[in-house]
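Data card: per-record layout.
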Amino acid sequence: MIKQLIFCWMMFYSFTADAQNYFLAGKDSLRDKATFDSLLLEYQGGKKNYSILPAMIAKSKALKNDSLGTLLAEDYIENYLMKVNSSDRLTKQNISFINAHLHSHQSNAFIWFDRNRVAIDIVMDRKGYASETLTNVLASSFITPHLQAAIANHRDPNWQLIRKAMRKKASSDLVDMALLDAKIRWSGYHKNWLQHTKHIVQRVEKYGPFGMFSPVDWRYNDNAWTIFLKSNNQDEIKKALVWCDSAIRIAEQPEYYDTYANLLYKLGRVEEAIKMEEKAAFLGPNYDDIKLNLEKMKKGQPTWPLEL
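The structure for this 308-residue chain is written out next.
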């Protein structure tokens, strides 16, 4: 079991399980390519059957025709989903679909997502779901080009310039969240761990745990584990301990107890750490890394990387 925060600073879109299931269902309903080709000809001729369009989008993806799939998805969202009653639009299936295909901050779907963040979070049963979707779009539109240019020209990004451009198109809370996410990616990419862990703490304390649409307990633990690996700041480690406690209160997983124990150990609270690691080993008897960490704790050896 290797725990790490994956920094994909150029990757901003991810499919949820709901969206993936949606596409699989559509793909199965159009197994015959001849049928798909016939429907596509009708669509291109102006005869649009929106009830079958999700299946056509799924089939386009299956045929690796992403450009067609994107075109169909944008049409389905803007000219069908955005025109149905807002309450009918608020389903897990529809929200997942929009999330998977939302690329433009100028689209009606972006505006609808922004105006209905609370309702969307409730439907998806995840606080911050809508905001993360929106900040991903902002990052793709505004931040990625600046980061790419900064890398090409061997300079730091002009964060104020990026913020000013985004602020014209989105609210300050979305802009600030998107910028924090970008600074986390940037500092991780450049292995500037002092800034990296500082920004992670700011992000979690202000907006909650973050990650690629994973459960909240996993995100708390994942963020805490990064602090354990990359920070020697006692205040940051103590905050990560609180996050890990939140994860454990949601689900008693061996990985969470392992993270908690390692944070305690790094704080010098050895006896407490060993008790916690023994609990982790009891819950996860097949986790070799937990056993190794427990042995190191009992021997007084570091369980964290000595060089960052």
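Known properties of this structure: Residues 126 and 216 are 8 Å apart (CA to CA). The chain has a mean pLDDT of 89.

See the next section for split statistics.
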